[in-house]
């Protein structure tokens, strides 16, 4: 949800002996959390049920109407799973996003998803089309569950980036990303057609960040930074068909056509003139393909890093 602050100066009086201590538990069952970037969210857990899921929302529950609506969503979700004996993973995260019904401003819509850190996935209690993932529209030909899994994993890491207090880093998972970055650095140095969209200097900066996280992995800012990088690489695995037949191993490689077939996809006039012009059109055609990759990867990198 999007909120706005008053556009006028409002008087505020500080009473004597007032000590400003952050009160995380603002309402019964609710805890206020602040993202390192400054965004505020809230988490709710039923009293005496520490093993049960936690409910997250960025809706402003300090507004009584919004709080009541969120509580309705929580109770209905709890009743639904309880009446059907649906057992969710240990301390799963359920995220609610409130929206208004354009046809009826007095009504509201509650979107949700469930995040499971153990399996690194998000899921629903309803049937959902895979095209809800933004990355789905970047490529075509996605069919196996092992491929779609990368999109699901990327969304789980993005959830951890948005709600870093929901996830606890360990040395083992930090080392996992360290291994990914080590390979990326080597691939970028030794291959002129690496699919890694970062320079060696950028990757080394990430490695320095990981070295600091390894010493103190429990910080909220560290979890957010770690999760954002993991999200990027999981998204890249989806885009490059990682683990699938014909996975893209070089940035100028097509995932849909073999190299010899790409040659036949050239316009007829280019194929006709190529021998006369000493294959110069072939060179330009290949350079255009490479430029297309550079533009696409630059756009991708910007989308990933600037997306919120």
Automatic annotation (TrEMBL):
Organism of provenance: Lentinula aciculospora
Protein name: Uncharacterized protein
Superkingdom of origin organism: Eukaryota
């Amino acid at each position: 949800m999007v909120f706005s602050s008053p556009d006028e100066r409002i008087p505020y009086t500080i009473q004597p002996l007032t000590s400003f201590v952050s009160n995380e538990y603002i309402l019964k069952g609710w805890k206020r959390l602040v993202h390192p970037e400054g965004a505020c969210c809230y988490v709710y857990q039923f009293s005496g049920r520490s093993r049960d899921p936690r409910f997250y929302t960025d809706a402003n529950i300090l507004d009584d109407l919004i709080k009541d609506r969120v509580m309705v969503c929580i109770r209905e979700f709890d009743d639904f799973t309880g009446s059907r004996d649906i057992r969710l993973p240990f301390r799963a995260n359920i995220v609610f996003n409130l929206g208004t019904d354009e046809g009826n401003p007095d009504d509201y819509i509650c979107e949700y998803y469930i995040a499971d850190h153990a399996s690194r996935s998000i899921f629903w209690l309803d049937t959902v089309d895979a095209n809800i993932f933004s990355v789905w529209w970047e490529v075509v030909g996605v069919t196996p569950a092992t491929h779609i899994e990368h999109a699901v994993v990327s969304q789980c890491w993005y959830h951890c980036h948005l709600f870093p207090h929901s996830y606890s880093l360990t040395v083992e998972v930090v080392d996992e990303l360290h291994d990914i970055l080590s390979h990326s650095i080597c691939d970028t140095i030794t291959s002129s057609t690496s699919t890694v969209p970062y320079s060696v200097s950028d990757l080394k900066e990430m490695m320095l960040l990981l070295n600091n996280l390894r010493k103190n992995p429990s910080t909220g800012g560290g979890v957010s930074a770690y999760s954002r990088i993991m999200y990027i690489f999981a998204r890249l695995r989806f885009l490059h068909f990682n683990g699938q037949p014909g996975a893209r191993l070089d940035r100028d490689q097509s995932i849909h056509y073999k190299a010899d077939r790409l040659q036949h996809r050239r316009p007829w006039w280019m194929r006709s003139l190529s021998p006369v012009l000493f294959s110069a059109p072939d060179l330009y055609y290949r350079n255009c393909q490479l430029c297309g990759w550079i533009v696409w990867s630059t756009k991708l990198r910007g989308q990933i890093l600037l997306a919120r």
